[in-house]
């Protein structure tokens, strides 16, 4: 089984992803733009595939999709780490830039592309979804 590790900027929070993500996406929603000053690359994983060590703080806000999103970050350095939507509590979003090897995953889709600024460099090879896509199916191995 593939495991990937990551951490916040100061190292107070570490995490392990167990298995492959269900999707890796560049998100251009306005909230992600505020958090990253650009699009944000996120992996969608089953909640049980994310193992976290260290303290987390939370910020809860209603997103443009209408869902309530809980964002988790390191209370010491402020690094944005994870998110979870009320519409899909079985999934967690992990910010790929916090992986020890962020090149180990590649995005396959731009989401909320309608919100991207005019100067955004959206890879034309990636699928483009104007707003919120449907969640990918979970494939469980027997």
Automatic annotation (TrEMBL):
Gene3D superfamilies from the entry? glutathione-dependent formaldehyde- activating enzyme (gfa)
Q: Which PROSITE patterns is this protein grouped with?
A: CENP_V_GFA
Q: Which residues form the CENP-V/GFA domain?
A: 4-113
Keyword annotations for this protein? Lyase, Metal-binding, Zinc
In alphabetical order, the GO MF annotations are: carbon-sulfur lyase activity; metal ion binding
Listed Pfam families: GFA (PF04828)
User: What family classification does the UniProt entry report for this protein?
Assistant: Belongs to the Gfa family.
Protein name (database record): Uncharacterized conserved protein
């Amino acid at each position: 089984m593939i495991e990937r590790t990551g951490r916040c900027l100061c190292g107070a929070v570490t995490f392990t992803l167990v298995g492959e993500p269900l999707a890796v996406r560049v998100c251009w929603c306005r909230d992600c733009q505020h958090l990253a000053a650009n699009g944000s690359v996120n992996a969608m994983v089953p909640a049980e595939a994310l193992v976290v060590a260290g303290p987390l703080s939370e910020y809860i806000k209603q997103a443009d999709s209408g869902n309530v999103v809980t964002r988790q970050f390191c209370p010491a350095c402020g690094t944005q780490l994870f998110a979870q939507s009320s519409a899909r509590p079985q999934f967690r979003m992990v910010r790929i830039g916090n992986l020890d090897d962020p090149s180990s995953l590649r995005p396959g889709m731009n989401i909320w592309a309608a919100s991207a600024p005019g100067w955004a460099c959206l890879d034309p090879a990636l699928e483009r979804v104007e707003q919120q896509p449907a969640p990918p199916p979970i494939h469980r191995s027997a």
